[in-house]
């Protein structure tokens, strides 16, 4: 079975590569022809690059993004402007933006009242700007929620299976990667049984994320078992910017009263059932109570975008939950279509308002100048800023780019560590024993600007202390870096500078 799947996947990948190569060949052939038409075409494309370059410089994009495109148009004056237009102005992204905006507007009246935000602002005046910002973006502040933080994929998995067994009305799953193996097979078995019992089961996975892990017809196979499945943004062999906008969220919702999110995907390396890049360190959180509804609405929005079908969202709203839980919980989501960069803004708010410490774990550290400046300013202002990244990488080129950012941060007083046992995939922030966030947002360009992401902000919850304790345990298993460790040879340093220039494309 697996050999047949591999052959199907290989044939599909070869087909995609050939079609993309054919499109590029035809374009290059037109430009490189010596005919009069080709010369006029060449001149027209060069003029287009000049005009597009002016538009890029005057736009509102990040400076690093502007710089990359200007350099590309200088180096490739014929193709640079055309490539920018292909990436930036496409009907498919505009349609998706309008559709998602309508879904988000339909969700707002169901989020909950403003009482939670007002109560949180009174209790935490220093966090009021972040609370109000997220509420204005449509993300309510919830109380009456128990938060269980899990410092490993194994612990998430151990809690998830019994929670799925308790489902009575519906189970919603949204993941970047699904791969058959110990973790998915166990979950899949529960989903089949629950679907047979009349529970509504929906599965949404990203096509690019699962490109090499699932056969092309897997959604139809699940449908035959009574599991409603959609593939988000199916990959198509055309030059299209929409292919950059992947669904990187990880959400499980059970009856709208229990929800999970975090860095984990449904593949065996996330629970260390197989070894991949050493020990895999991840993290997740379970919300039991009112805040679970916030994650449920995020799933329903993406389901509506992927299925192009309308749901009566209020029909999925759970009844009142038993009172309980301490502190405030604010689930939030990020979309590349609205240009708002919510995930980045949450991180920046935490950094900028830290008084004593900010502790961060991230698998990648590929950020723009504004994030570097915020981290450096916090460290220079006496805040204890510590960041842990992996020592064992999953992508060599990305790891080399991450290391290109170490030196300016170390010089500013930020303390950097690499997780020695293996690959660190957890995405957590915790600050001042008061606020933390757990979710899917990496500190890289794709997560911050290109992907659909989600997270959970925690304020004065017991889980904040659990996140801090997990960071300290991870720190004990990590090696601190010094400036002496970050003095590469001249060729390596030049290569890293090129990688930093190309970072917005990674």
UniProtKB/TrEMBL annotation:
Single GO molecular function: cardiolipin synthase activity
UniProt entry keywords in alphabetical sequence: Cell membrane, Lipid biosynthesis, Lipid metabolism, Membrane, Phospholipid biosynthesis, Phospholipid metabolism, Repeat, Transferase, Transmembrane, Transmembrane helix
Cellular component terms per the entry's GO annotation: plasma membrane
Limits of the PLD phosphodiesterase domain: 243-270, 420-447
Membrane topology listed for this record: Multi-pass membrane protein
EC number of the protein: 2.7.8.-
Protein name: Cardiolipin synthase
Biological process annotations from GO: cardiolipin biosynthetic process
InterPro entries: Cardiolipin_synthase, CLS_N, PLD-like_dom, PLipase_D/transphosphatidylase
Superkingdom field: Bacteria
Transmembrane segments: 12-31, 69-89
The protein's enzyme class: transferase
